[in-house]
Write a structure and sequence with these properties.
Shape of chain A: globular
Number of strands of chain C: 2
Structural class of chain A: mainly alpha
Chains: A mainly alpha (634), B mainly alpha (97), C mainly alpha (462)
Distance between the termini of chain C: 17 Å
Largest interface: A-C, 63 and 70 residues
Largest sheet of chain A: 2 strands, antiparallel
Number of strands of chain A: 2
Number of helices of chain A: 26
Distance between the termini of chain A: 63 Å
Radius of gyration of chain A: 26 Å
Helix content of chain C: over 70%
Order of helices and strands of chain A: HHEEHHHHHHHHHHHHHHHHHHHHHHHH
Number of helices of chain C: 19
Strand order of the largest sheet of chain C: 1-2
Shape of chain C: globular
Oligomer: heterotrimer
Chain lengths: 634, 97, 462
């Protein structure tokens, strides 16, 4: 049985090779099915271990492909590690990957480069599988760079303008900063432990490093910098919203469901190291919180349907890092799972909307789509309810689990979490109402073109909707009579630590839940009133129209205006500030200045290269003199 | 000992300075020759100090190679003159940055 | 020794091929001859260390690196055959010069006497001065030629001065005797001066900063395949020779030399990588990338012992087999697009997927990303250097290699993104022997990336 492990990554790889090598021989219609077949068969192989794992019968094993590096006492295998954690991620990657492949067949059907598109998509699945299956940091790094490359290729798939170039450059620099941290962390670990195998590193770490010592803090911080780059955390997050320039299914697969969770996977995998460095964990928590709030604030005023989803992804990733920072690794993975379900659903749904609108992405020109796109509407509703955390949908359980842990740490942590959740609810429902309710605001041509998407697209939507609906039941907390099945699942062989028994009483937990729930419902109601009842459509200039809209409205709820000035306006201002100041100037500024600095230095060096042979000879002699001088001084 | 070393170093430095300062290719070739010959002188000197003939044999190596090298150099020079009708190095600055 | 004699004979054969009417079959003849040479060389010299008259040392190190160098020449002959079939240049003369240069490279990995070192360096370089200018009517080519010649001779002068000082200190040119002297007398100004100057003249050959100025200009100006040879063959020969010199002439690396090398390495990595970011011409990007690679390689030189040798072998082979195909693609693109600007690469992924794949993989390998061979070159290098205590150098090297990903990926992205949908261009497709060579190179990049132990286990025997 174990000997078939290699099939899992090899199948998508074969798909990639076939599609890219025999590009001209494969009919366009067929390439999508071939690619899908590759991923689906990989998923079936994964099930082989996934089902026993669900039953708790999986014996973890390492499958050594070959002896990779043999350097004296240092030794490393190219090996795959199959345990409950990696099999869980593999199931998500291949499962959701299959659905998105299927969806892409219809979505990309009239694109010229469809074969190329599917070959990249298969290559991505392959790299991502390598990332999670590897049994050491080096294999992880191989996948890490692989997914990065695929992400660039796919962002650039519809490359037409310079804006893309900038986006790619930004993504590039940010990911390199992340890689720098990761590589250095890896090298330091190697230096002190003498191995990069997870098993060895994690076993020896407690002996080699003292808890809370400087060294382990530095190493974990460096690893965390790597995670920050890949998982789009403050301050390295601004590339993710820009990366939405690629085709929508790509955003769903790479920039929402799988690749961006690589950082969370890595930290969960090495949780023993992070537990040794409480300072790092605190920093992880603060960065996660900052990301969750900042991204949610920006999301409030975005009008591009994909941008809203992009910022919500960043914000949800922030939630996951909050959980990691509090040491609740299993909860973070739980949220990764539910988020993969509902975010993939939302992205694919938005793709369906964009498809129907003929490429329009601005929610100000949509509206009333619920009659024309009923299936998309229902599935989108489920996704939105799930992300808002309405019971019993998936998002409720995972978000509530994070909030419960937060309350245990401090009520303030809980409050911040709830605040971020409310912001999420607000902008998600704002988008939802603007898109599906009210009257249609696009051109007549678009109106005629409106149609429900074909079965190939709605089927994945339906499946994902089901998962978003029921996905949360895997980890029902004790309060609801559940046994936190998922946390126990991950705790097999104490791979991921189980959280201690909750210290808060059942009553408190009920009250907290109720408060959060009531606030969320109130927010939804508020959104409904402002965007559906009052047709409060944001125009190009946001603030003015809102005021105007309120003045014109015949229902004079003064309470609305109080709301408006106390809550909406400050939030708007906050959102604008964050977006225009912090993101545009500070974060992008830093990235730009790094790029510019390198370029300036490059141009300086360029001018030394003057073309004159005499100058070259001069520099050579100066070099000789300098070296001799340094020797004398030393 | 010091005088000899000083003389050779001086010759070598003059050659090197010629490489840096002169613009005429022929003069630059001469500077290179000067550098090589400074080294030859040094080798002969060390050879007699050590009472060992190897150094002097090495001088023959250097001379033979320098002759071959300068032949190539002059051939390139002719080619340059055919192309740009000049043997000034300042006109050969197209490859830069 | 046999390899040197055979290669020289093949060179002479190539030179007179036109006279004796072998022009048509000279290429297969040379390739078969070189392959035979490789075989005979391995068969007779492997595990049979011999010193030829005190001038040359034929140990396993020599066998391994002469095999690498001869293989690079064979691959070069195969890849460049298209250019010569188009009768762009005089074939016989070029092949002869390339083979003589190869002889110089072989001398560089086997010298046991400073005289042989000097001869090796000169025999390696002089044919290249001519070849760089072989595009006689192109002003860039002759400029490259004269620059290479002037600065190369200048470096020769520095090297000779170093040799003379070493001779003055030790009274011998024999590396073995110098090594014995080194053990006894640690403080001698002449000795230190000679060591430093020799180190710096090697630094010129490997194009380390600040002796790198010739490299970008010469690489850009010279005909593409000559650049390919310089960048792959000369760099491998120079580094193998440098390492050989340190290993034979010093029992342990002297401190001033080590400091100098580490210093140069940092400067080279930074300058090479940062300057490459700014370039828009692919040939110049590869030239600066070659400089940056030299910077990483310098870090390996102070590391003696079997691990150092094996990682040098891994890195140099990975570098060579990534560079040659990259230059081939460059040549193809420049023939069609007329230039080697980055724009010429746009849409290559659609026009010529094979060429694009070749370039992609070689860029990935040069950038040092898994699963290409280059990754292990870097991996061994970084871990060994860290163990040797060069923490800061490794930090610079890691930053440098991250910057390098930018310009390597720039080409990849260009190739796979384009606005217009062009159909396949048949004039770009490679001929059969080139095709096979490219596939062999691609597969070896991957195989060495997946099974680097093949080379490491050979490296242990050196």
């Amino acid at each position: 049985m174990k000997d078939f492990v290699w099939l899992i990554p090899t199948l998508p790889l074969a798909g990639f090779l076939i599609l890219s090598l025999f590009k001209s021989f494969i009919p366009k219609g067929l390439s999508g099915y071939l690619a899908t077949l590759a991923v689906v068969s990989s998923f079936i192989v994964v099930l082989n271990w996934f089902i026993p794992a669900l039953r708790g019968e999986l014996t973890p094993f390492t499958w050594v492909a070959w002896d990779w590096i043999n350097l004296g006492k240092y030794h490393l295998n190219f090996a795959f590690q199959i345990d409950v954690l990696s099999i869980w991620f593999m199931a998500i990657i291949t499962g959701i990957g299959s659905l998105i492949h299927l969806y892409s067949i219809a979505y990309m059907h009239d694109d010229d480069g469809i074969t190329r598109y599917f070959s990249y998509l298969n290559l991505f699945i392959f790299s991502m599988l390598i990332l999670v299956m590897g049994s050491n940091f080096v294999v992880l790094f191989a996948g890490w760079e692989g997914v990065g490359l695929c992400s660039y290729l796919l962002i650039g798939f519809w490359f037409k303008n310079n804006a893309y170039n900038d986006a790619a450059k930004k993504a590039f620099i940010m990911n390199r900063i992340g890689d720098l941290g990761f590589l250095l962390g890896m090298l330091l670990l190697f230096m002190h432990v003498g191995s990069l195998d997870y098993t060895t590193v994690l076993e020896q770490a407690p002996q080699v490093f003292h808890k809370n010592a400087g060294l382990i803090t530095v190493i974990t911080l460096l690893l965390f910098v790597g995670a920050t780059g890949k998982s789009a955390q403050v301050p390295l997050y601004t590339w993710l919203p820009d990366a939405m320039a690629g085709p929508t299914p790509v955003s769903a697969l790479i920039h929402a469901a799988t690749m961006v969770t690589a950082g969370i996977y890595m930290i969960t995998r090495t949780n023993i190291l992070f537990d040794l460095a409480p300072i790092t964990l605190d920093i992880v928590y603060y960065i996660g919180t900052a990301t969750a709030i900042l991204a949610a604030l920006i999301g409030l005023t975005q009008n591009d349907i994909k941008k809203v989803l992009a910022y919500s992804t960043v914000s949800q990733l922030g939630f996951m890092f909050m959980a990691l920072g509090m040491g609740a690794y299993s909860i973070a993975v739980f949220h990764v799972t539910t988020h993969a379900f509902f975010k993939a659903l939302l992205f694919l749904g938005s793709g369906s909307v964009i498809h129907a609108m003929g490429g329009e992405q601005d929610i100000r020109y949509m509206g009333g789509l619920r009659h024309k796109l009923p299936i998309t509407f229902i599935t989108f509703l489920i996704g939105t309810l799930a992300i808002a955390g309405i019971p019993p949908l998936a998002g409720f359980f995972s978000k509530d689990a994070i909030l419960a842990v937060a309350f245990e740490h401090s009520p303030i942590y809980w409050g911040i979490g709830v605040f971020a959740a409310l912001l999420t609810t607000f902008y998600m429902f704002r988008m939802f109402f603007l898109t599906f309710f009210g009257s249609f605001r696009g051109s007549d041509k678009q109106k005629e073109h409106l149609h429900e998407s074909p079965l190939l697209m709605t089927l994945p939507l339906a499946v994902l909707a089901l998962l978003s609906f029921g996905g949360g039941f895997i980890n029902i907390p004790h309060v609801f009579g559940g046994h936190q099945w998922f946390s126990h699942y991950l705790n097999q062989k104490s791979l991921v630590p189980l959280l201690g028994e909750s210290s808060i009483s059942v009553t408190t937990e009920y009250i907290l839940m109720a408060i959060a729930l009531i606030l969320v419902m109130a927010t939804i109601l508020f959104t409904y009133i402002s965007y559906v009842k009052k047709h409060n459509i944001p125009s190009a200039d946001n603030s003015e129209s809102t005021t105007l809209g309120y003045k014109l409205s015949y229902n004079k709820f003064y309470i609305d205006e109080i709301y408006h000035s106390i809550i909406v306006k400050p939030l708007h201002i906050a959102s604008d500030t964050v977006f225009s100041f912090i993101e545009k100037y500070i974060l992008d500024g830093i990235v730009k200045s790094i790029g510019l600095g390198v370029q300036k230095a490059g141009s300086g060096i360029r001018h030394i290269q003057s073309g004159s042979t005499n100058t070259y000879a001069l520099f050579m002699i100066l070099g000789v003199a300098l070296v001799i001088l340094i020797q004398i001084v030393l | 000992m010091f005088n000899y070393l000083f003389l050779c170093t001086l010759l070598f430095v003059i050659g090197a300075l010629g490489m840096m300062a002169r613009r005429n290719l022929l003069v630059m070739f001469m500077s290179i020759e000067l550098m090589l010959n400074a080294v030859n002188l040094l080798l002969v000197y060390f050879s007699s100090i050590h009472g060992d003939a190897q150094g002097q044999v090495f001088v023959f190596f250097v001379m033979a190679v320098a002759a071959a090298e300068i032949t190539i150099g002059l051939a390139i020079l002719v080619m340059i003159y055919r192309n740009i009708k000049s043997i000034g190095i300042e006109q050969l600055k197209n490859l830069k940055w | 020794m046999k390899a040197i004699i055979f290669t020289s004979a093949l060179g002479i054969l190539a030179m007179i091929s036109e006279i004796i009417g072998l022009k048509k079959i000279i290429l297969p003849l040379l390739i078969v001859g070189l392959l035979l040479t490789i075989g005979v060389n391995i068969y007779t010299e492997w595990n049979y260390t011999q010193v030829y008259y005190g001038m040359m040392l034929a140990d396993n190190y020599y066998v391994a690196f002469s095999t690498v160098l001869l293989s690079i020449t064979v691959l070069w002959l195969l890849l460049s055959s298209e250019s010569y079939l188009n009768e762009e240049y005089n074939r016989g003369d070029h092949y002869a010069l390339i083979l003589f240069s190869t002889v110089g490279g072989l001398l560089l990995v086997s010298f046991n006497n400073l005289a042989t070192l000097f001869m090796g360096v000169e025999i390696l370089s002089i044919p290249l001065y001519i070849l760089a200018g072989s595009d006689k009517n192109n002003k860039y080519s002759i400029e490259a030629s004269i620059k290479y010649f002037l600065l190369g001779s200048f470096a020769t002068g520095i090297m000779l001065l170093g040799i003379a000082l070493l001779y003055g200190a030790t009274g011998t040119f024999d590396l073995g005797l110098i090594a014995q002297y080194n053990a006894k007398n640690m403080d001698n100004t002449l000795y230190y001066g000679g060591t430093l100057l020799l180190t710096l003249s090697f630094a010129f050959k490997v194009s380390a900063v600040p002796f790198h100025f010739w490299a970008p200009d010469v690489y850009t100006g010279a005909p593409t395949f000559i650049t390919a040879f310089m960048s792959a063959f000369v760099k491998v020969a120079a580094f193998a020779g440098f390492y050989h010199f340190i290993q034979q002439a010093y029992l342990s690396i002297p401190l001033p030399m080590e400091n100098t090398i580490i210093l140069l390495s940092g400067a080279t990595i930074l300058v090479g990588n940062i300057a490459a970011v700014y370039q828009t011409d692919m040939k110049r990007i590869l030239a600066f990338s070659g400089i940056a690679q030299a910077g990483y390689l310098l870090l390996l030189l102070p590391i003696q012992g079997e691990l150092g040798k094996s990682s040098l072998l891994v890195y140099l082979i990975a570098y060579g087999i990534a560079n040659l195909p990259a230059f081939y693609v460059l040549y193809k693109v420049s023939r069609i697009g007329g230039s080697t600007n980055l724009e010429s690469f746009e849409g290559l992924g659609k026009k010529q997927p094979i060429l694009a794949l070749v370039l992609t993989l070689s860029m990935i390998s040069l950038a040092g990303l898994p699963p290409a061979a280059g990754f292990f070159g870097k991996f061994y290098l970084f871990t060994l250097s860290i163990n040797n205590g060069y923490l800061w150098s490794v930090l610079i090297a890691v930053i440098g290699s991250l910057i390098s990903i930018y310009y390597y990926f720039k080409v990849i992205i260009r190739m796979y993104t384009s606005t217009e949908s062009t159909t396949g261009d048949s004039s770009l497709s490679p001929s059969l022997q080139v095709y096979v060579t490219l596939v062999v190179l691609l597969v070896s990049i991957l195989i060495l990336g997946l099974f680097p132990d093949i080379l490491v286990s050979i490296g242990r025997l050196l």
